[in-house]
Design goal:
alpha/beta, three-stranded mixed beta sheet, 40% helix
Length: 287
């Protein structure tokens, strides 16, 4: 396929067949393997910080791709890393230290356990509400073995794996006090920055345009600099008020296949995409 020059960011959560993880954030090992081979065939794959430098220096002369993972699921180590190592794909894990410490779980898990949608969860993802939410989740759900712990991070290869900041608890940052946001962003940075391969970058929890506010931007400026990493978009990265707004494309078993994601987000929908989407809908109707 013909690819416009640019920086293509593909991000994942879990790579496994674990039914405890919602399909919206889970990618099967077979699909992940095929997508990494696709990237190696069609892109020059670069580490996240290298792609960011190329963006900032205006050196996106071809199609570059970067791979990252949010939240730190164990499946990244068990199922994704063998593929990444075989294909020599550099990758970045944006980590929440509370997940590493067994003191919290991701919003996707909470939503599934409590049978709530993402919008209803916003009030729960708050420093004054989360302890109660976590207590309910622990009583109802066996979360053990879902997330990486600190010792397991040493099993990721230096030179191929980077670690970044995803805040400590994955709270909805917009509207939190300056003190709470500093605790989440700067506090998590201090807990992670000694990891080998750590890069000083924050991937915003939830990653939508309304999940952060001016306080978030100010704290991020002070801790990490001028990159604002979202979880939506295509390759429309841009400079706004001195900050680089970085877009990413979410991948999972519920998403279209990777070439269709590119067509949808970057090159526009074509007839093949529309026909495959129609076929998927027909299969859902009859199953």
């Amino acid at each position: 396929m013909q690819l416009p020059a640019g920086w293509y960011n593909f991000y994942y959560h879990d790579v496994s067949r674990d039914p405890r993880v919602p399909a919206a954030v889970r990618t099967s090992p077979e699909r992940f393997d095929a997508e990494m081979r696709f990237l190696k065939h069609h892109f020059e794959v670069v580490a996240f910080d290298q792609g960011l430098r190329r963006l900032q220096d205006g050196q996106l002369d071809r199609a570059y791709a970067s791979v990252s993972f949010d939240d730190g699921y164990c499946g990244v180590l068990e199922h994704a890393l063998p593929v990444l190592a075989r294909e020599q794909v550099p990758h970045t894990l944006f980590l929440n230290s509370a997940f590493l410490d067994g003191a919290a779980v991701s919003d996707s898990i909470i939503a599934q356990v409590l049978q709530q949608d993402g919008n209803a969860l916003r009030a729960c993802m708050h420093p004054q509400r989360y302890a109660e939410t976590w207590s309910r989740v622990k009583r109802q759900f066996d979360w053990h073995g879902l997330f990486l712990d600190r010792p397991s991070l040493s099993r990721f290869p230096a030179g191929l794996t980077q670690f970044g900041n995803h805040t400590r608890h994955h709270y909805w940052l917009a509207g939190l006090s300056r003190q709470d946001q500093e605790s989440e962003i700067a506090g998590n940075h201090e807990l992670l920055r000694h990891l080998p391969g750590y890069v000083s970058l924050l991937a915003l929890p939830f990653g939508t345009s309304d999940c952060f506010d001016d306080t978030t931007l100010a704290v991020n400026d002070a801790v990490h600099g001028n990159a604002v990493i979202k979880a939506v978009g295509g390759i429309g990265h841009r400079l706004e008020q001195g900050r680089w707004i970085v877009e990413r494309m979410n991948m999972s078993d519920e998403k279209p296949r990777i070439d269709d994601v590119i067509r949808l987000r970057v090159t526009g929908r074509d007839l093949g995409y529309r026909l495959r989407k129609f076929g998927r809908n027909v299969r859902r109707w009859f199953h």
